[in-house]
Amino acid sequence: MAYAGITGWGKCLPHGVLTNADLASFLDTSDDWIVSRTGIGSRRIADCLLADMAEVAAARALACAGLEAADLDLIVFGTTTHDDQCPNMASGLQARLGAGPCAALDLNTACTSFLYGLSAATALIRTGVVRNALVVGAERISPYMDWDDRNVSVLFGDGAAAVILQATEQEEGVLLEKLGCYGDAREILRIHGIGGAYVHSGRLAGVTEWQFEGQEIFKKAVTGMGLACEDVLSRAGIQTQDIDLVVPHQANLRIIEAVAKRAGIEMDRVFVNVHRYGNMSAATVPVALCEALEAGRIKPHATLLMPAFGGGLTFCAHLVRWGSRTTPIETSDKELASPERSALDIVLDYRRARERGVS
Ligand code: UT7
């Protein structure tokens, strides 16, 4: 049976950096609190559409794999923060890249959307339906944030990344995964004001309110990711010492440390970049993957473990075997336009818009 090797990767982070000190300039919080409770030092804020970030990340991933957009058979776009619900994000990306008329689908499992997308694309390659796939994890959370709610606004950031999967006879790509969801816990993370439900709740369209039980999410995240890691390792017959690098969802340093401890993996085999970007939801794992490669942390034929959790409450863990190449074939010069406002100014504009009742 064919495997689905990861042959291209590319990321796109918005230029605007929002520091903890920026947040403390309008919110009752502090750098000390945010760093000690989450490990987050800064996050990026987009002054562009989600589609703009995804296009740059995808162009870089295609160049990295040495493919043209027209070679794609499938685009899977993982996100919770669509520019548009209809038409979907994947069709827009297909048109921007000139990749038509390949299959194009959006997938929303919140922060696990990229990894669920990796599973969907891998399955379609392994069953012979497609040969070349682009999988995107991208979020523009900042317009949906309640910037006056310190329980959530310090945690999240914007960003995008993408990978290319290609059919191969080599034993590469996703070898095994566990996907799951605690649907009975879906109310512990709910964003009111996105989607049609606000019509029934009498809320103003576009003005969001976050229902967020941080400690419950924390506990469920550690349990779900822990069980998923144990499941894939035992089914694969692999010991934790055989894992070269863990590339986890980056929501909170303490969650990452708890999952690593439970799995018996020391932190020097765990890739962490949550201090730079905060939680970018679907974008965290692919951005971390790109940065682990850039830092030389992924060697040819490395064995990777990728656990994640998200609203739903979805959870998963993927066991991935890297291929022989850890450097790009080509690079793309595609770049985001320079932002017109600082990250802090963008956020302050969102706050003013919320006061007027539109986000
Ligand atoms: O992809 C899913 C995304 N969700 C998550 O990853 C959330 C997972 N949960 C967490 O990461 C943690 O539970 C949090 C970082 C959200 C909170 O950390 P915690 O250690 O569980 O803090 P806490 O909720 O127990 O809050 C402690 C105190 C509270 O004050 P009181 O009631 O003890 O007086 C909060 O009001 O900290 C207060 N607090 C803050 N203080 C300063 C909450 N947010 C802030 C803030 N700055 N930003």
What does this structure look like?
The chain is an alpha/beta fold. It folds into 2 domains: 3-173 and 335-355, Peroxisomal Thiolase, Chain A, domain 1 (3-Layer(aba) Sandwich), CATH 3.40.47.10; 175-321, 3-Layer(aba) Sandwich (Peroxisomal Thiolase, Chain A, domain 1), CATH 3.40.47. It is built from 12 helices and 13 strands. The protein has a 5-stranded mixed beta sheet, sandwiched between helices. A 4-stranded mixed beta sheet has the order 8-13-12-11, with helices on both faces. Strands 2-3 form a two-stranded antiparallel ribbon. A hairpin with a 3-residue loop joins strand 12 and strand 13. Helix 3 (50-65) crosses helix 4 and helix 8 packs parallel to helix 9 (253-263). The chain is globular. Bound molecules: oxa(dethia)-CoA.
Considering the chains and any ligands shown, give keywords for the structure.
5-stranded mixed beta sheet; Peroxisomal Thiolase, Chain A, domain 1; 2 domains; 359 residues; 4-stranded mixed beta sheet; binds oxa(dethia)-CoA; alpha/beta
Q: Please state the average pLDDT score.
A: 96
Query: In which order are the strands of the major sheet placed?
Result: 1-7-6-4-5
Helix content: 25-40%
Which ions, cofactors or small ligands are bound in this entry?
oxa(dethia)-CoA
CATH class of the largest domain: Alpha Beta
What is the total number of structural domains?
2
